[in-house]
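assembly run, all chains below
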Amino acid sequence: MDARDTIFAAIRRSLGVTGREGPRRAAVAERLKTHPAGVIPARGNLPPRQRIDLFRAMVEAAAGTVEELSTYDDVPSVVAAFLRAHNLPPAVRRGEDPRLAAIDWERAPSLTITVGRADGSELVAVSHAFGGVAESGTLMLVSGKDNPTTLNFLPDTHLVVVAAGDVHGDYETLWQRLRVAYGAGQMPRTVNLITGPSRSADIEQTLILGAHGPRRLHVMVVGSI
Amino acid sequence: MTATVTSPSFKENVRTALADRQLQEALSFGLGFVQRRRQAADRLPEFEALRDAARDIKNHTLAHLDLYLGAYEERVVASGGRVHYALDAEQARGIVLDICRRTGARVVTKGKTMIAEEIALNDFLTANGIAPVETDLGEYIIQIRGEAPSHIIAPAIHLKKEQVEADFRRVHGNLPPERNLTEPAALLAEARGVLRERFLAADVGITGANFLVAETGTSIIVTNEGNGDLTQTLPKVHIVLATIEKLVPTLEDVAQLMRVLARSATGQDMSVYTTLSTGPRRPDDPDGPQEYHVVILDNGRSAMLGGEFNDMLRCIRCGACMNHCPVYNAIGGHAYGWVYPGPMGAVLTPSLAGIERARDLPNASTFCGRCEEVCPVRIPLPRMMRAWREREFERRLSPATVRSGLKFWAFFARRPRLYGAATTLVAPVLALVGRARGRFRWLPLAGGWTRTRDFPAPQGSTFQTQWANRRRR
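ok done. output:
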């Protein structure tokens, strides 16, 4: 018996089962197939405008910043202004996300855009989120060439675009969207749930931003106004 | 078994801890977690309902653990990952070393994982020519000090910033003396720079897992720093270390647990980074590891299933119990002598390291019950500590003086009239002797009490006598 067999046998012995019992197997299969939702806080269950307001309040409570834009074409000037305001060079890296690619970046001619994953030399990255959760001010980003995961962690400043219609009240809505996008039981390599910039309180419990991930997180909600 | 267990010298450890001024000062910062948890719980009307749901999900999963583990394994393999099984610490270490050797790894970065502590992985890797680098700031600090973590989520909570500065200066060779490192922000910036290089150079990244999701074959880590993410995304190989009770059935179930985890731990609604990883990079991915390995470890958990300590397997490692424990807040985590301190350590350490070595831990409690009150998955910690005390007594592990003291008291407690007669004799004597000060600084046979406390002098007449008298009137 190898380790695997031994462990399964030990578990079954402790539980007093053989593993072949019908009702148990049915209960597990059922739960995996129907993935019933549990307690969902009422907090995020709001009409769209109030949901965005809550999302904004929660992101700010986590030390992020939020700006609302009417269309994608406003993104370049907003990004350029943000970089100027923080004394950052006008250079950003983004992934191949079609929504970001479709933007007319020439509207901010001073901006240098490069496309691809991060390697540690970039100061600023722009990503497009899969969605947001108003309940806690959380962004969901998924891996892939559209929005490489390294863009979320290596650069010092992370600018994230999220469509207003993709800001939901709870996580459960996003799990369901992932199932539709990737198939039942399937997932991309990485799903990041991000709430604010990186932080640590490990030294005398003093809270400091920018531990290893970005020290600045700026969220641009497009299409809410 | 695993890393050095100093729990047998708990009483000695406690004396050292109480006399350690720097530790006591550092521990005084501790109460912030308590307040923040309270505030986070108050802000969420559904918090209590979520605790019930979290408990029920864990119970259901444990009762069907063999089936969920099988389902989980299937999904990991389907997504291109590999699952390895380890019965104990030695097997787990061997698997990790094999993977590292096969990929020619020399530098390994690590996210925070208590399992790695439990199996004493770092020393083992070092002894085999592989350099493990802790990346969680607190873990990094204690690594360069050669210490163990003293809290399961804030490993360096026992240190003051001056101590950290001294360590950085000792270890980071090129630091100019005039560089100001007196503030935590400066220390963090220094660590960030040093660790960034290691992240980029690592061949293998090792993380733990807060949860393993059976529905999708996903491992989940929760951090505030982002170090776990850099650890698992940049190297060619990602190894996840997890014990069997980390299983959770579905993403919806995980959302329930996520909602109580950070709130119970630090008072945040969500930690900054909750990351779900499934398999290695996909064909189109520009980044991510090429290999994804999950090491599933038993190390004593299957023996706890279905038994008296089954409920301890619900633990989601939030740390709320130790944050609220008056004993932990007085002595810190190192005194407990092993990986898991505080109330959860007092229950888990005897299960995993043996009651013979850990017998003092379940006794270091007043059963105030705060731990159970704040546990997000409602583990009845005092009940289980009492169960350990009973087992310890049955197995004659308590010292002879304790056993004979208890026998002596039990003799009288079983004979109420004799008990009453004895106290009626003793109380007036004590009252007479203690009348001047009203309390005793020393009493024969009561040294354990009077060494640090005064014993109040009785009034002279026992409660039973006064009660009987009043009823007669």
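Residues 42-222 of chain A form a domain with the Rossmann fold fold (CATH 3.40.50.10420).

The CA atoms of residues 88 and 123 of chain A lie 8 Å apart.

not gonna interpret more than that til we talk
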